[in-house]
């Protein structure tokens, strides 16, 4: 009975407490209104956030548009141009100390012999431009020793796989140094006399040339271009004097050049060039003769095996006998040289050269010449070289030129 009375009392107490803790209707309504206000505030904040997101998206799109505009603008075009454009060059400074039995040929001088800049541009995968601007002997102008020359300026087009064509002003595909004559690529301070006076390097013409590969290691060049011009009445008898250098060059008679080159064996290069021109006088008449045709034959070999290397070249001009009517003895001009070399180390190389040539410059009475050279190249870097050599040149008429040369050369 007592337990039941306690349970009843506890139940009555809990009910009273629950009734006292329960909120009134008025309090519940206030709570709902408060929650609704909070929800409205959250909705307002969400709307503001959505507006800010939209504004940010608009600004981002505008930024991307500006970036794209810049990317397609001058800065991007300049970057694209720079990627497709190449700049290079080479130069060489010489000191010559030579003594001759004929004092007029003696020399003791310093000379910035050449300063050259290359400019090239790749228009697309198949089309490109190349040029070469040269200043010789440092100072050019009226009464000065030097010249400013554009040795190359041509467009080259790959019209088929392994075949290309070029048009403009370009170097002749003849000899060893005519196309590759940077000072770090050959021995000796000065370029050898056979290629300089007989071929004659450096030799460029204006016209068109086709080049390519006939088979692996066998390439060809074939072109038609401006020719030489020799005026015997001006005292010009040497082939070298006939270079017109594509400067308002007479075009009455064109010249034709072809070369085959074989490089199929590692370290070996064999090449032969033929050029024909039907009239060295370019339509003019001298000594009662109407024309003088000329044919050049040139062949050379290069072989490198480890530190040992050797170069040999022969060149021969056969000029029509009409030249003899003006200047006897100028109908043939020829020469050859042989040059062994040895690399004592990657930086140091020794060479010797024997040359013999006859360009029969009748105005001076000189005929056959021979020259001995011995010297050293020291490469400070792959494309920077110091040079020193001793030479002795003998002329058939008895004159002798001897002495030493020093030089520094570079290319990039």
TrEMBL record:
**So which residues are the signal peptide here?**
1-20
Q: Name one GO molecular function term.
A: porin activity
Coiled coil: which residue ranges?
Answer: 25-59
- Which residue range or ranges hold the Porin domain? 75-394
Keyword Coiled coil belongs to the record: yes
Q: Which UniProt keywords apply?
A: Coiled coil, Signal
Q: Does the keyword Cell wall biogenesis/degradation apply?
A: no
Q: Which Gene Ontology cellular component terms are annotated?
A: membrane
Pfam families per UniProt: Porin_4 (PF13609)
InterPro entries from the xrefs?
A: Gram_neg_porin_domain, Porin_dom_sf
Q: Out of the domains of life, which is the source?
A: Bacteria
Q: What is this protein called?
A: Porin
Recorded source organism is Porticoccus litoralis
């Amino acid at each position: 009975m007592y337990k039941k009375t306690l349970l009843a009392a506890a139940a009555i107490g809990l009910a009273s407490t629950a009734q006292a803790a329960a909120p009134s209707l008025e309090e519940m309504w206030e709570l709902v209104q408060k929650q609704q206000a909070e929800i409205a505030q959250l909705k307002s904040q969400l709307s503001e956030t959505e507006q800010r997101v939209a504004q940010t998206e608009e600004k981002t799109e505008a930024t991307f548009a500006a970036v794209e505009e810049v990317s397609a603008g001058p800065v991007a075009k300049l970057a694209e141009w720079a990627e497709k454009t190449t700049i290079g060059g080479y130069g060489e400074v010489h000191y010559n100390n030579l003594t001759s039995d004929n004092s007029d040929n003696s020399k003791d001088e310093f000379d910035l012999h050449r300063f050259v800049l290359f400019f090239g541009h790749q228009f697309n995968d198949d089309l490109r431009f190349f040029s070469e601007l040269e200043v010789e002997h440092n100072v050019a102008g009226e009464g000065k020793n030097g010249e400013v020359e554009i040795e190359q300026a041509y467009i080259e087009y790959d019209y088929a796989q392994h075949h290309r064509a070029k048009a403009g002003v370009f170097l002749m595909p003849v000899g060893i140094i005519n196309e590759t004559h940077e000072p770090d690529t050959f021995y000796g301070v000065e370029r050898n006399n056979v290629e300089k006076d007989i071929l004659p390097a450096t030799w460029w013409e204006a016209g068109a040339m086709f080049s390519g590969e006939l088979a692996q290691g066998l390439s060809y060049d074939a072109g038609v271009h401006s020719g030489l011009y020799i005026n015997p009445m001006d005292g010009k008898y040497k082939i070298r004097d006939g270079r017109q250098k594509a400067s308002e060059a007479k075009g009455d008679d064109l010249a034709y050049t072809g070369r085959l080159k074989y490089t199929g064996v590692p370290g070996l290069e064999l090449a032969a060039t033929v050029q024909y021109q039907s009239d060295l006088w370019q339509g003019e008449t001298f000594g009662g003769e109407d024309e003088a045709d000329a044919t050049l034959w040139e062949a050379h070999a290069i072989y490198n095996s480890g530190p040992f290397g050797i170069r040999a070249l022969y060149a021969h001009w056969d000029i029509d006998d009409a030249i003899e009517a003006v200047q006897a003895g100028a109908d043939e001009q020829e020469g050859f040289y042989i040059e062994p070399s040895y690399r004592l180390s990657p930086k140091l190389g020794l060479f010797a050269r024997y040359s013999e040539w006859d360009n029969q410059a009748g105005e001076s009475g000189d005929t056959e010449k021979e020259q001995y050279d011995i010297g050293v190249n020291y490469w400070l870097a792959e494309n920077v070289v110091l040079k020193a050599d001793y030479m002795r040149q003998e002329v058939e008429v008895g004159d002798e030129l001897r002495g030493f040369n020093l030089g520094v050369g570079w290319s990039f």
